[in-house]
């Protein structure tokens, strides 16, 4: 015998009576419109006629024109959406008038019912998509559903609390006093690098911090250094790695800790120029294991899915934020490897895709109230200049990245830029038509600069909202691909 299934009573999503009361309130006292303006749109009404009458009233109030049953009568009687309803029900609607104490509550009920109806429509659409999806995979359907639900979440967020200047000042003074008492000059989480802290005052919650560089300069390594050090002092982080697996990423952290080359850490063998391979020593293996065990204690989660969307990362980040360990920061490697929404991808406009990704990342940072370190590629423009230090104009694919970021940092290694001028024979490449004297002088300058720049790097702070810009000197160890501050010793721990 089949078991009975008991369901709660079906709730009504019809808010006609509340809609009539809100409309009556606005028509009989237009100053009450401000109570509902930030909550309601005409589309939220179940009755098309009442929603259209609300739109007419709204437009009159917003434009400063009189709004009452007399002044809207002509338009109501000639508008095909409202004419019949107005003639039949105008008098009865006006008797539904309610006072200010309940007006806003009615508006909330109408908006919530509209959101629930939209959710019901999405559920029905999802069932149709699943049963008649054709060649769409489950992953594609989930992505499309996430996009639609995110749009609903934005339209349903009608009452995000505004802050008074007094409450904002109170929060600011509280944070300032806490930092003062703690003896800290930071207004955000510690970057782990003194030079960066001096310029940025830490990574502020809700801000996007872009680290941009040409391929091979080491932006992933700098991001990992920031993440490992920040996680130790400030709490759990989330890294999205679109280019490397989680294992490869953590091998870089172990290499930085041990000072051994990354490929030695990953293979347990030294590889020599003649092709010979030799296992690492017992002492070197102990160092690798010890660093690995230390890395296990760092509170860090790595998402190494290729081509993730911001929405997918946001979903995981929200879950982490709710958990006991919380979420202190997010790092993304890198923006141009992320996927835009299906609708924008169909446009085939790469600039539009990166613009959407950048805006969504900025919105994610603000929603979660955590700093986001976002890596970005630079275009080739800088390589065509005599001074190859990057500028804001060199950021690839979209100007939105620069606009949305709180801070933009460019990573530059002069040693790498100069080596592009050296041929395979180890000699400085000669320019076409260059005289012997000019070549010898330039070659000597390049050789001297190479020697001075070996093992160094610069983090160029190009934009810093509310703070200073400038250049932070760094040390770079090529074999382990690890960055240290100018003030650090090689014997200091990498993290």
TrEMBL record:
Task: State the family named in the UniProt similarity comment for this chain.
Answer: Belongs to the helicase family. DnaB subfamily.
Q: Does the keyword Cytoplasm apply?
A: no
Q: Give the protein name, as stated in the record.
A: DNA 5'-3' helicase
Point out the coiled-coil segments of this chain: none
Q: What does the record give as EC number?
A: 5.6.2.3
Name the CDD domains for this protein.
DnaB_C
Q: Which reaction does it catalyse?
A: ATP + H2O = ADP + phosphate + H(+)
Q: Where is the SF4 helicase domain?
A: 182-490
Keyword set, alphabetical order: ATP-binding, DNA replication, DNA-binding, Helicase, Hydrolase, Isomerase, Nucleotide-binding, Primosome
Which Pfam family, just one, is annotated for this protein? DnaB_C
Q: What class of enzyme is it?
A: isomerase
């Amino acid at each position: 015998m089949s078991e009975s299934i008991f369901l709660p009573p079906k709730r009504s999503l019809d808010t006609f009576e509340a809609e009539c009361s809100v409309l009556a309130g606005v028509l009989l006292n237009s100053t009450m419109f401000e109570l509902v303006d930030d909550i309601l749109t005409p589309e939220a009404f179940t009755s098309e006629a009442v929603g259209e009458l609300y739109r007419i009233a709204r437009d009159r109030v917003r434009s400063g024109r009189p709004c009452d049953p007399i002044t809207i009568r002509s338009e109501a009687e000639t508008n095909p959406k409202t004419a019949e309803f107005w003639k039949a029900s105008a008098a009865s609607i006006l008797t539904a008038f309610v006072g200010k104490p309940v007006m806003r509550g009615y508006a909330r009920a109408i908006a919530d019912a509209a959101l629930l109806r939209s959710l019901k429509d999405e559920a029905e659409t999802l069932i149709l998509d699943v049963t008649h999806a054709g060649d769409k995979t489950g992953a594609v359907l989930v992505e499309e559903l996430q996009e639609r639900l995110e749009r609903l979440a934005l339209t349903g967020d009608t009452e995000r609390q505004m802050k008074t200047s007094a409450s904002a000042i109170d929060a600011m003074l509280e944070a300032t006093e806490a930092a003062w008492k703690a003896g800290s000059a930071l207004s955000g989480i510690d970057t782990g690098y003194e030079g960066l802290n001096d310029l940025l005052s830490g990574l502020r919650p809700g801000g996007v911090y872009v680290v941009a560089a040409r391929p091979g300069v080491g932006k992933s390594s700098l991001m990992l250094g920031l993440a490992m050090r920040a996680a130790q002092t400030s709490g759990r982080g989330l890294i999205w790695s679109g280019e490397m697996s989680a294992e490869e990423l953590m091998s870089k952290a172990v290499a930085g800790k041990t000072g051994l080359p990354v490929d030695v850490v990953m293979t347990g063998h030294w590889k020599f120029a003649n092709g010979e391979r030799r296992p690492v020593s017992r002492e070197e293996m102990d160092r690798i294991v010890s660093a690995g065990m230390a890395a296990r204690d760092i509170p860090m989660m790595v998402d190494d899915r290729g081509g993730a969307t911001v929405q997918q990362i946001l979903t995981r980040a929200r879950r982490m934020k709710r958990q006991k360990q919380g979420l202190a920061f997010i790092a993304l490697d890198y923006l141009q490897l992320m996927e835009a929404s299906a609708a924008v991808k169909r446009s085939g406009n790469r600039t539009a895709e990166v613009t959407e990704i950048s805006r969504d990342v900025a919105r994610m940072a603000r929603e979660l109230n955590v700093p986001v370190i976002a890596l970005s590629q630079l275009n080739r423009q800088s390589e065509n200049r005599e001074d190859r230090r990057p500028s804001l104009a060199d950021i690839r694919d979209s100007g939105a990245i620069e606009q949305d970021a709180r801070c933009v940092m460019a990573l530059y290694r002069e040693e790498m830029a100069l080596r592009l001028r050296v041929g395979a024979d180890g000699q400085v490449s000669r320019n076409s038509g260059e005289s012997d004297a000019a070549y010898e002088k330039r070659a000597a300058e390049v050789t001297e600069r190479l020697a001075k720049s070996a093992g160094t790097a610069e983090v160029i702070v190009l934009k810093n909202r509310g703070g200073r810009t400038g250049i932070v000197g760094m040390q770079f160890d090529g074999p382990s691909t690890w960055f240290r501050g100018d003030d650090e010793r090689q014997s200091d721990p990498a993290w």
